[in-house]
Amino acid sequence: MSRTVLMLPGDGIGPEIVAEAEKVLHRINDSFELGLSFESGLVGGAAIDETGEPLPNETLERARKVDAILLGAVGGPKWDKLEMAKRPEKGLLGLRSNLELFANLRPAILYPQLASASSLKPEVVSGLDIMIVRELTGGIYFGQPRGIRELEGGERQGFNTYVYSESEIRRIGRVAFEAARQRKGRLCSVDKANVLEVTVLWREIMDELAGEYPDVELSHMYVDNAAMQLVRAPKQFDVIVTGNMFGDILSDEAAMLTGSIGMLPSASLNSEKQGMYEPCHGSAPDIAGQGIANPLATILSGAMMLRYSLGEEEAAKAIEAAVSKVLDQGLRTADIMSEGARQVSTREMGEAVLAAL
Amino acid sequence: MSRTVLMLPGDGIGPEIVAEAEKVLHRINDSFELGLSFESGLVGGAAIDETGEPLPNETLERARKVDAILLGAVGGPKWDKLEMAKRPEKGLLGLRSNLELFANLRPAILYPQLASASSLKPEVVSGLDIMIVRELTGGIYFGQPRGIRELEGGERQGFNTYVYSESEIRRIGRVAFEAARQRKGRLCSVDKANVLEVTVLWREIMDELAGEYPDVELSHMYVDNAAMQLVRAPKQFDVIVTGNMFGDILSDEAAMLTGSIGMLPSASLNSEKQGMYEPCHGSAPDIAGQGIANPLATILSGAMMLRYSLGEEEAAKAIEAAVSKVLDQGLRTADIMSEGARQVSTREMGEAVLAAL
Ligand SMILES: CC(C)[C@H](C(=O)O)[C@@H](O)C(=O)O
Ligand SMILES: CC(C)[C@H](C(=O)O)[C@@H](O)C(=O)O
């Protein structure tokens, strides 16, 4: 059984952090005799510079064939003036939709060693452990029609379409109910069913699925209230399931509750468990090339990859334990630095994880 | 000059809190000789129960004629099973759109007396004073087409349309630039211009307006990042301008940063400065009828009404000063109660404000 992982470093700090994750995965591959082989490719701004396209055909073809993808980040001011179809983000969105990676899992976990990094009071966030399940290949991100048109009289109008079918809702709902079942058994579905018809259907399908999962306690919350409750009392949540746009907003808000977004991995899966794994943070162009970025979210994304796409739970746990160990040792990159800790570079952090393995 | 204010208590705690605000406004009307007359009407669930409609024609006709409206809140579980067109929320949305109340002003202010109520660390939120300018009569709330349709093959699909024209963006943009000009001169426009075409147009128009307001510093932020930055470092913001849906989410998130949403008023204005004023919080059906709700957000909404629609700055300031005074006196309703303070009922709080006037 030969399995292949595609590395897509992308832009900004992407190459630096993926390099460290790659070293960790190579080491794990050897020590656990996983038989993984590694390829790498271009996506985002890096691909635009090289080929003119944010998602070159060659990258897409390879992506289709591999078992899993580890992505750094895409985008940056250099490409911000391009028309939307040619921007780095389209590389990411193209991978998501072409591979049908509809299930985006975004944990928001507070590491006890980093509790003080949060802007919230310790008692509000200590022990925080939320899983956000975001639909990733539908909703307003991909809905048609879309564009900017000219109205009679000459003024322009921009428009996008927020759309979900029953089957799209059902498949993301199942992923969320399964996730809740393996956790504390509580699922909160977030919508705006008092205003938007598309989310009336969303709510209806979630209620219908609840019958299949009697062991999971389903609740519903409007998105504005969810944005508030995450600030007020985030520990009330176990698993949250929501659409693409609300998920984009709430998962970033939830991640920031921990104060250490440089620590948070994510997984995007399709129905064959093929997956793309990436840190929750962006390409951070302001600190790119300085060797100070935090590689831990990418390293932990590697662990998620081993768990969800490659079925290598032991190897995943080994990486997570190594990360925990370096935090215990007091090593910190600049973004999570605090008094009394030792500040290290991107590479030093990567080396420390290797040593801890 | 005779000016009329329409009171719409609505549902849940609405009647209790509006009753206190009404007493305060009557007193101010007398002492400042404002010559206001007051009417009241039905909206939301209360109107459904009485007339079958969330926005009876009579209410709408009166609303069109008055100078300003003070609304409590609408909605509750009692009406949650009704089809969308007949729900209490449609009363609120119908008033907003029929009166073209496109400019929603939502301050998020931390009262120094209530600093400890926030779930954020004191240094992160002390002195917080953000103004969110939300577009209120367009965007996905009102976009057509919308609904739930049957696809070929029999499955259903829900859909809504996110749409803005140049002129809609321009008029809310102007309100926001003007607000920034009267504050610290910084305006952050929030969009998702890396994914949604409608917000590409939004960003373009905001950039264009910036030329007319050289004294205001305009920046742009993606909505996911804004949701994060509000948690990480909310004091970086002065005025935020955004569309209806993002504004719904971010204004509630920002309000909750203060920990005392029971204190926050809001204004919804049209181009003639006619306005509807309401507390930021909802109808709180769980505590309705118990006499424990906080009337201060509604009382402060009355102050906003005097300021923005009636041009009575002195009277507005008198109310705000009275509210500050009762907080200094240590009086607190249950939602903002803390050690060492004196807990009072809805009515006692209203009486205390009257006494402080
Ligand atoms: C880069 C952008 C297109 C993307 C998104 O909006 O999905 C990012 O914010 C994310 O959450 O992965
Ligand atoms: C009640 C609801 C329709 C409303 C909205 O979504 O606008 C409320 O949340 C608000 O923010 O005023």
- Please give the number of β-strands of chain A: 14
What's the number of helices of chain A?
A: 12
For this structure, the quaternary state is: homodimer
Strand content of chain A: 15-25%
For CATH, the homologous superfamily of the largest domain in chain A is named as: Isopropylmalate Dehydrogenase
Inertia-based shape of chain A: globular
Rg from Cα of chain A: 20 Å
Q: CATH first level of the largest domain in chain A: which class?
A: Alpha Beta
- Helices and strands of chain A: which structural class? alpha/beta
Lateral arrangement of strands in the main beta sheet of chain A: 2-1-3-12-11-4-5-10-8-9
CATH architecture of the largest domain in chain A: 3-Layer(aba) Sandwich
User: Which H/E pattern describes the elements of chain A?
Assistant: EHEHHEHEHEEEHEHEHEHEEHHEEH
CATH topology of the largest domain in chain A: Isopropylmalate Dehydrogenase
Count of discrete structural domains of chain A: 2
Biggest sheet features of chain A: 10 strands, mixed
Of all chain pairs, the largest interface belongs to: A-B, 62 and 62 residues
Enzyme class (chains A, B): oxidoreductase
GO cellular component, one term (chains A, B): cytosol
Site (Important for catalysis) (chains A, B): 141, 192
Keywords (chains A, B): Amino-acid biosynthesis, Branched-chain amino acid biosynthesis, Cytoplasm, Leucine biosynthesis, Magnesium, Manganese, Metal-binding, NAD, Oxidoreductase
